[in-house]
Amino acid sequence: MQGFFEGVKDTNSNIKVHIRSVFDWYDQQRAMLLFNDLLKENIDIVYPAGDGFNIPIILEAKNKIFML
Question: pTM of the predicted model, to two decimals?
Answer without folding.
Answer: 0.84
